[in-house]
Structure formats: structure tokens, C-alpha cells
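ARCHIVE CARD
Drawer: 12
Card no.: 0347
Subject: one protein chain, sequence and derived structure
Cross-reference: see card 0346
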Amino acid sequence: MKRSVVVSLGLMAAIALGTVGEAAVALSSSSALAQAAPAQVETAVAKSGDWVGVDHPTSGAAKIVTENGKTYLELNEAFKTDRGPDLFVLLHKQEVPSTYAESDFVNLGRLEKVAGTQRYEIPEGTNLDDLNSAVIWCRRFNVTFGYAPLLS
């Protein structure tokens, strides 16, 4: 009788473990599916335009996008300009920038690279209606490498 109780307990334990194991596999699978599901990203394009070279060849496209409550200037994969010292990315009031008084533009920072996709956060509270172009500008020599008129 002792032997049958031990075997029965062993079988019940195996069944219970199998059930728990299956439950654990099912839970881990559903967790993995939940983690693999892509997050919803709200993106809206406010303005866009193509780059025009001025003192240096500059090409590609630029667009202002809002994503999850933040606004960015994005340069696309076709963006390309020359190397230069002290290059900055600006949003300018003039469609074709000709002056660089600090009141004429919003400085988004140094140009990260001279070719390819890149993104620059636009400071909160910036009035996009007042800004009509994106600009690659050499601060040291006050030279416009290129600009992209930003149209709605």
C-alpha cells in the first residue's frame, strides 16, 4: 500500500508540474507577444521642403514633424552637404535667408553629420508659423551652405 501511495503522489506531482509548466509557458508566450507589439507613435508633418545649395552644394529634404508631443526638424536619408567648420542647423524667419541676426532664427545646434538621416529637437514654445526655412549655416564665416524653404 505504501508503494501505491508513493506512485500516486508521484503521478499527481508530475501532472501538477505539467499543468503549472504549461501555464508558465502560456504566460511567458503572452508576455513576449505583448512586448513584441509595436507602440503606437503619433507623427504629423507640419512643414517640409527640399534643400537648395547656396555657397556649397546641399541636397535632400527637410521636414518638421510632431511626434508624441515633441517637435523635430528631420533631414532625410538623401541629405548631403559639404564639410565645413562651425556648421549649425537653424530654423530661419526668411524663406531665403540673407541675414543672421539672432532675432531672425532658432539655433537647433551643431550639424551632426554632413550626410544622411538626422533629427533635431525644436525647443518647446517655438512658433513654427514665424519660421520659413531650415538652414545649414557656417557661423565662423557667416556663410549659408544651403537652405530648405519650409512649406505647409
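Annotation on reverse: The helical segments are 2-36. The longest helix spans residues 2-36.
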